[in-house]
Amino acid sequence: MSTDVRRLVTTRVTRPQAVAEAAAARRRPDSLLGPTGRLMVIAADHPARGALRAGPDPLAMADRASLLDRLCIALERPEVNGVLGTADILEDLLLMSALEGKVVVGSMNRGGLAGTAFEIDDRFTGYDAAGIAAMGFESGKMLLRIDPTDPATAPTLEACARAVSELAARGLMAMVEPFISHRIDGRVRNDLSTEAVTRSVTVAAGLGTTSAHTWLKLPVVSDGIEGMEQVLAASTLPALLLGGEVPDDPDAAFAAFERVLKMPTVQGLVLGRSLLYPVDGDVAGAVATAVSLL
Questions:
Q1: Three-state DSSP class for 68?
Q2: pLDDT tens for residues 50-64?
Q3: At CB < 8 A and 24+ separation, what contacts does 259-262 make?
Q4: What residues contact 94, with CB distance under 8 A and at least 6 apart?
Q5: Which portions of the chain are predicted below pLDDT 70?
């Protein structure tokens, strides 16, 4: 599929109401789980944080037509039953009729721009719970980076707790992506040790007035499968594994996912750049490999 940018722009200029019409007409999924019995989400909310790098290309995700083409290739697979994005991307996909029957996850806090002095101050500059519900989407996702030395962590924690409660009040999934983070040489780095990720799980699981609709989006820790057993033992909330950066060794990364997917709380995958911008450029092949794990 090749994205018709001119058509999208013309629609946005002449019929902006077409976005709301497409959202209202969209066929909703019957379940959060796809044909594999798992949730498989393709993530593309990175650009709104100014995080455009994929592999060696610092501006890979800046080409919107290319990004939309790659998303459509992934979403053509029925096993890829969800997509995560900000309003601009999800509305492009709505206008392209690419979200039929898919679990749609609106990205909520994108204010902690990559590489800035205020990165940990991750304000809610994207969707809110009311907006997600109005669009008929199924979930809202929030990033929660906990820096023990940065006071901006506290208001981000409070905002995430409020979002969890507001989504739950509407019966919508709250997808929380927690990290313990530190600023090293001026850059925010996520601590992927077993202890740090375990601590982040316990904090994220306790957010809000109820955890009934909370799912966790978690990385595979640097300590391997044994570490993941400890991480996932910290909560009974459903967990999704995130893909993160484009891996140098995709086979090793997928092998790790395969092992962790057998653990009882793990309900699926949220993969972004590793599928959309694979090292060999074969998006369809990368997606086929990922869905085979499910």
A1: helix
A2: 999 998 999 999 999
A3: 259/225, 260/220, 260/225, 260/228, 260/232, 261/38, 261/293, 261/294
A4: 19, 22, 23, 26
A5: 1, 244-248
Angstrom distance (rounded) from CA 265 to CA 236: 6
Total tally of structural domains belonging to the chain = 1
Residues 16-24: contacts with CB under 8 Å, at least 24 apart: 18/95, 19/91, 19/94, 19/95, 20/135, 22/91, 22/94, 22/95, 22/97, 23/94, 23/135, 23/136, 23/137, 24/136
CB atoms < 10 A from the CB of 228, how many?
A: 24
pLDDT in tens, 153-178: 999 999 999 999 999 999 999 999 99
The residues with which 182 forms a beta bridge, in sequence order, are 189
Look up the CATH number of the domain holding residue 113.
3.20.20.70
